[in-house]
Amino acid sequence: MQAEPSYLTGLVRRLLRLLSGVIVGIILLLIFERIRFIDALFILSIGGGVGFYLMRNEGHALLHLKTYFRAKAAAANPADFIPSKEQGLRSSEFDDTELTNLIWTVSSAEQQASTAARNLRLDSQYRHEVLYNLPLPLIILNDDGQVSEFNKQAKELFDHIDIGKPIAFIIRNNEVLEAIQQVNRGEASFNEIQLSTGFTVKRHFAVLTSNFSADEKSRTAITFIDRTLAMEAEKMRSDFVANVSHELRTPLTSILGFVETLQGTAGAEKKTREKFLNILQQQAERMFRLATDQLSLARIEQTEQYVPNDACDLSLICNRVITTLQKQAEIAQIILNFNQPQSPVLVKGSPDELVQMIQNLVENGIRYGRTGGEVKITLETQAKNPVAPQQPFCCIHISDDGEGIDKEHLPRLTERFYRVDKDRSRTRGGTGLGLAIVKHIVNHHRGHLHITSEAGKGSTFSVYLPRP
After folding, report:
1. How do beta strands 190-197 and 203-214 pair?
2. Is the pTM of this model over 0.70?
């Protein structure tokens, strides 16, 4: 590699170029003997000295410019690099106005370019981070309908997405594709359409498509808003209203029919009147229980996010429930067996809710237990919960010896109005909301409900509650 000329060598070369016309003129004068050699040498000496003195500042300025740009060229990011004081441009060293202005202009332009490059890079990085970490899946298309950008949420939703791939290869829904193409072609500036994905687990999205311009080119943004929970909640609400209407219609139909009968000639007979009035009372009590359970469920759901903090003794609560249900158990010929521990079993909770929870479970045991059998209530002061083995729990086990429940029904037992045997449940006074209330009370107390059952051998409902 050829070595670069030194500062002095470069200055001499520039001086020779500057004096080249004078030198040619003196040589011609010497040839035609118009001047003597000593005069020519004198003129060149004086001219060279004066020129050297005048060009000294120019040489320093060019040297500074060379050092400055060499340092920027050697940097990892030249556009963003600002040389140090030793490498920088210091116009104060030079007296020449044109050189000073040149150095100041170059330095100012370089600093502005460096600042602009840094801001551009930060802005690009910021936009990339915003796009990539946006909580909603987002896909950007170019004017040809191909993917130009996407974020990680879009990658999780469509694992086969890639840059440059047509959107038709990613979304296989004709209605959604037509809506996207309308916006992409400029026929509409905004569009919204529903999209369902998945086979085993369905997910529902609102697909929002809009058009914008970037770098003087048209772009299409596709955003996916997850509506799965909202649609499931709406379906649950519709099912709940339908179930409540059905549950209320049956006793209301019976009440209206028997009232109409009593208003006729059959109401004059005492036995018939007493029989029908007894049925009317049963149906009215069923409606009252249904309304009460609905109100209880709504109240628990409203306060479920707040953890109750009252001190409760589960032994006293179990005794209170047994006293309340003793007569109902005797009528059903069921023995209530409570293995009461010697010391109190204390938890943090709501006494009224815990009473309702245990009462619902014991009533279920009485309602579906074997005639002449027993419902056993057991308290464990220290229990291992398989869901959270490291956390201390106490546990309430409520077991019956009835017909039991098939395994396929167990996951749905706590759904509202879900019954294994609807006719038997209604006949025995069940509303279909008892276990749903139990589940919400357990959730309110940050506990866990575990159900085990075997056909022909009864069922056990275990409630794990955190120990204080």
Report:
1. antiparallel
2. no
* Type of residue numbered 184: N
Q: Are 55 and 66 in contact (CB under 8 A)?
A: no
Q: Tell me the C-alpha distance between 378 and 337, whole Å.
A: 9
Instruction: Return left, alpha or beta for 448; rule: phi > 0 is left, psi -120 to 50 is alpha, else beta.
Output: beta
Residues of the chain with pLDDT under 70: 1-12, 14-19, 21, 34, 50-65, 68, 72, 76-104, 106-107, 110, 198-201, 215, 239-248, 250, 266-268, 303-304, 419-431
Cα(354)–Cα(36) distance, integer angstroms: 127
For residue 195, give every residue at least 6 positions away whose Cβ sits within 8 Å of its Cβ, in sequence order, or none. Answer: 171, 173, 176, 204, 205, 206, 207, 224
What is the rounded CA–CA span in Å between residue 356 and residue 364? 12
Rounded distance, CA 340 to CA 322, Å? 12
DSSP-derived pairing of the beta strands 448-454 and 393-400: unpaired
Element (H, E) at 301: helix 270-302
pLDDT digits (tens, 9 = 90+) for 31-62: 777 677 777 777 777 777 766 666 666 666 66
